DNA sequence: AAGTGGTCTAGACCACCGA
DNA sequence: CGGTGGTCTAGACCACTTC
């Protein structure tokens, strides 16, 4: 008397995942052929294929026509990792730095700069000029809800990492961020701060950052010099 | 005597995409039931399901158990997946298009545009103006080693997807791409092709694309209008 | 040539939704 | 309740890789 509520193909899927997690199937290993799996698990080949197809879509397995089905090599999407400015500059072999521009509490954020946080009341605004090898690289403006981070405004941000403070003092870890990236010409104020000619375009990053509870805790705008900065990324099918 | 080289489910897939592009199916519309589609196109229901499943994975359709299959509302940015120009524009709710600019075989690619492919001998160069809703959006220049893709130069690329040709005729699937993205001002030729003022900056994507064997099969440069295009992405810690 | 995954059929019954 | 998508079968032949 089977409790067969769970679909067969999902059972097989879970079985395969567990074999991989237990190390019985290692990256690069061949799976048994579909027809054999069908026999072993007493199901039809189409059902086996459905299980495998989903795992292929999830990058767990790889099919090779005429050859076999293999456990995928674990890949680390380097370019897709969430990094702070400091971490990223160090990765590029540059010395990161920071200069405080502005630090204040705002009631209604200018325009719709932080529509995602608007319901949170007062916001803490931090605007910093970010340096790489002592030269201006970007202007970073962060907005954080002050009720979640009391007395954050009393910190000195010249030589402190914002994300380190949030992690160590407020137990907030950034886990995910959504970005929209535009290109445009700098405003006069921006070209002066960044010390670039007004003919040099800039990247404008608009970011919302999520914590470990999948809650937005920051809205940030960053303006990067187009003559010194380029985005590097790696994407997968 | 059928010319049945193209799989049935891919034919149906294309049929459905075209119906959406022509506006015969609009976002939110219900598709005919699977059993009916099977009758209309004279194929089995499982084949219909395969076509629909792939479109669901590509966020073109949405299935609702017990209710029906619907055309997705465009708006969901799916940041980190490798997409072709056409796929991406469709995701953004725009109609993709293409205009051939140049198509030739080059011996030594200009400058170091394709250092990654240089050892491969002659290269096929394809330069296309990419349209979104009939307006210029980007200039795409692809370089491919001609020895891996014989007679690729004889294709007409006006209404054909490069990646679909590579996948179906040469069995090459793109699995990974590395990109460097710069911002700069357009050259006079670029601003004319893109139909933008010379004061509008552009994104310049430099991409190397890998196939299922982790071999580079394409080097591509794309120049996107900064006033119409923005990058949307999601990053994780 | 043998063995693999890729496509396809013509059914069947189940689970869910909406009137 | 009827109609929808969800799961599943037991075959068949094709296309590709490997030897």
UniProtKB/TrEMBL annotation, chains A, B:
Keywords: DNA-binding, Transcription, Transcription regulation. GO terms for biological process: negative regulation of DNA-templated transcription. SUPFAM superfamilies: Chorismate lyase-like, Winged helix' DNA-binding domain. GO terms for molecular function: DNA binding; DNA-binding transcription factor activity. InterPro entries: Bact_HTH_transcr_reg (IPR050679), Chorismate_lyase_/UTRA_dom_sf (IPR028978), Tscrpt_reg_HTH_GntR (IPR000524), UTRA (IPR011663), WH-like_DNA-bd_sf (IPR036388), WH_DNA-bd_sf (IPR036390). It comes from Halalkalibacterium halodurans. The keyword DNA-binding applies. Signal peptide: none annotated. The keyword Glycoprotein does not apply. Residues 6-74 form the HTH gntR-type domain. This is HTH gntR-type domain-containing protein.
């Amino acid at each position: 008397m089977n409790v067969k509520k769970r679909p067969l193909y999902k059972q097989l899927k879970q079985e395969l995942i567990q074999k991989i997690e237990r190390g019985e199937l290692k990256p690069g290993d061949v799976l048994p052929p579909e027809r054999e799996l069908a026999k072993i698990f007493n199901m039809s080949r189409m059902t086996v294929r459905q299980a495998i197809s989903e795992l292929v879509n999830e990058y767990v397995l790889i099919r090779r026509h005429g050859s076999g089905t293999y456990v995928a090599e674990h890949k680390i999407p380097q370019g897709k990792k969430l990094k702070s400015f400091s971490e990223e500059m160090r990765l590029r072999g540059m010395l990161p730095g920071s200069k405080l521009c502005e630090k204040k509490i705002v009631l209604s954020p200018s325009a719709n700069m932080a529509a995602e946080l608007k319901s949170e009341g007062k916001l803490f605004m931090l605007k910093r000029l970010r340096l790489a090898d002592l030269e201006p690289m970007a202007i970073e403006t962060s907005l954080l809800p002050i009720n979640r981070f009391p007395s954050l405004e009393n910190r000195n941000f010249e030589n402190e990492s914002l994300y380190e403070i949030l992690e160590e003092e407020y137990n907030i870890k950034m886990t995910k961020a959504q970005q929209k990236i535009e290109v445009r010409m700098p405003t006069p104020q921006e070209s002066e701060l960044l010390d670039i000619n007004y003919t040099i375009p800039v990247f404008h990053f608009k970011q919302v950052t999520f914590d470990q509870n999948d809650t937005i805790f920051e809205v940030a705008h960053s303006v990067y010099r187009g003559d010194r900065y380029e985005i590097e990324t790696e994407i997968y099918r």
